[in-house]
Design brief:
63% of the residues lie in helices and 7% in strands. With 278 residues, the protein is mostly helical. The chain has one domain. Strands 4-5-7 form a 3-stranded antiparallel sheet. The protein has a two-stranded antiparallel sheet with strand order 1-6. Strands 2-3 form a two-stranded antiparallel ribbon. The chain is globular and about 50 Å long. The protein starts with a helix and ends with a strand.
Length: 278
């Protein structure tokens, strides 16, 4: 009963985390179905928890850091790791996967989106679980943490609270580079466990364009990004916030170019109603 109460207290204390988690669960079931989604969540959460548990005791793989325990009794902890922290990895990895798919899946033709046209992507099993998509997913997963971790480290200046610290602050706004290596390790291990299991499930229908469902995951990625950038500016860390924006703008621009066809290019892309192959 105490665990249940602590779980409810955790949700009340960290509602934004569970909004993102709910968005992931909805987006995942829409794109890859419930069986794949719960496997993805469980594997990535357990991998993150084991790595965090290890790192707070051995420094592997994130480097040395410690949770302060300032919210013990207010939210759910598993050993010395806040529950909400380890579950964040699951929806961030899924969101990074969706961005990677949007950048690398093949597409053909267009579909209507008001004044714009989407480029319908096609599920290609080889591409969807191939090395290129998985490597890009891991990079994007690590890359978004380069915005999240610096502002989380300053949690005493906003509603997160001072929940952890590095005994040896690093060069990236106080975050050691080993932390980002740890994120890459979590992403790589999670996908290495998940993908072989996923390939045993019935294949997804390749005739259905997943673009709109992928955009739910992309929206989650940028929702988390903009939330953390907003907090960064709110606490007055302008240089840190602008740095984070400039880091991610090229990827956002490439993503928009990859998925959306703008009105000014319709005439060059179409002869009547027949699309021209690029």
């Amino acid at each position: 009963m105490d665990i249940v109460i602590l779980l409810f207290n955790t949700i009340a204390l960290r509602p934004y985390v569970f909004v993102f988690l709910a968005a992931f669960l909805y987006a995942g079931t829409q794109l890859i179905g419930w069986r794949r989604t719960w496997r993805f969540w469980l594997i990535s959460w357990l991998t993150a928890f084991v790595c965090e548990y290890s790192s707070t005791r051995t420094g592997i793989p994130f480097g040395w850091y410690f949770y302060t325990g300032s919210t013990v009794g207010q939210e759910l902890y598993l050993a010395d790791v806040p529950f909400m922290d380890s579950i964040s990895f699951s929806f961030l990895l899924y969101a990074a996967y969706c961005v990677a798919l949007c950048l690398l899946l093949p597409h053909e033709g267009y579909s209507s989106l008001g004044r714009f046209r989407l480029k319908p992507l096609r599920f290609n099993e080889h591409t969807r679980t191939g090395l290129s998509v998985l490597a890009l997913t891991v990079f994007l997963f690590m890359f978004i943490d380069m915005v999240i971790d610096p502002v989380a480290l300053r949690g005493d200046r906003w509603f997160l609270g001072k929940i952890y610290y590095y005994p040896d602050p690093g060069i990236h706004f106080g975050v050691p580079l080993a932390n980002y290596v740890g994120w890459a390790v979590v992403g790589t291990l999670s996908l290495a466990i998940y993908v072989p299991l996923e390939r045993r499930l019935p294949p997804l229908d390749p005739s259905d364009s997943p673009t709109s469902h992928l955009l739910l995951g992309v929206g989650l990625y940028y929702g988390v990004l903009f939330f953390n950038l907003g907090v960064t500016f709110w606490i007055g860390e302008w240089f840190m916030g602008i740095s984070g924006m400039l880091m991610h703008l090229p990827i956002l621009g490439l993503l928009i170019h990859r998925v959306v066809e703008f009105p000014s290019t319709f005439s060059s892309s179409y002869h009547g109603d027949v699309p021209v192959n690029h």
